[in-house]
Amino acid sequence: MRRKFDDTGQWFTIACFSIFFSLVDSIILTGAPDSYARYPKWAHSFENSLSMELKTRQSDGMLLYTDDGGTHGNFYSLTVVEGHIQLDFRLGDNSNEFGQRRPVNTIRIEEVRIDDDKWHTLTIFQSWENVKLELDYTLVFKILNQRSFVFGNILKNSDVFIGGLPPLLPCLKI
């Protein structure tokens, strides 16, 4: 059963958030600094997929964040920037030949604006060196030129945060 929620302006709504095939009906976030939802750790493997439906009127904001708890400095940060979806991420470990500073990769979908108060379907897919971001049938992908695609350690990875971050994320017991 799907509940109906009315968006009253500054609210941000995400529905059908799925990790590991589990579905959450719907959440509404107010956009306040302490407004976020926290979900269990995302157990990364060689093939990873995350899908959600969302609608917003916001032109800038945090959609999703998770990291490896400082193991390798890896993370996924999915944001709305100037009305467009942007995924910033880092994967791998020091076996890649990038030196001390491993790059942050960015994928941005310019063709579709999401701050139109309409429902949009978003999927992140990562398999080895292939990372894809799909929004309403618009697909953008990046092929990583590296040897390692490890994300972290399930015992140390952060939880998955939706809509924002707690103020003391590094201090949270993970």
Question: Can you describe this structure?
Answer:
With 174 residues, the chain is mainly beta. It has a single domain, classed as Jelly Rolls. The protein has no helices and 12 strands. The protein has strands at 12-19, 22-29, 37-39, 47-56, 61-67, 75-81, 84-90, 105-109, 120-127, 130-135, 138-143, 160-162. The strands form 2 sheets. A 6-stranded antiparallel beta sheet has the order 2-1-4-9-10-11, with no helix packed on it. The protein has a 6-stranded antiparallel beta sheet with strand order 3-12-5-6-7-8, with no helix packed on it. A hairpin with a 2-residue loop joins strand 9 and strand 10. The chain is globular and about 45 Å long. The N and C termini lie far apart (32 Å). The model is unreliable at 1-22 (pLDDT under 50).
TL;DR?
InterPro entries: ConA-like_dom_sf, Laminin_G, Neurexin-related_CASP. This protein has 174 residues and is mainly beta.
| Record field, number of beta strands | 12
Whole-number total of structural domains? 1
CATH class: Mainly Beta
Lateral arrangement of strands in the main beta sheet:
2-1-4-9-10-11
Q: Estimate the helix proportion, in percent.
A: under 10%
Enumerate how many helices there are, as a single number.
0
The main β sheet shows up as: 6 strands, antiparallel
CATH-derived architecture: Sandwich
Organism: Caenorhabditis latens
Transmembrane segments: 12-32
Domain Laminin G: 26-174
Protein name: Laminin G domain-containing protein
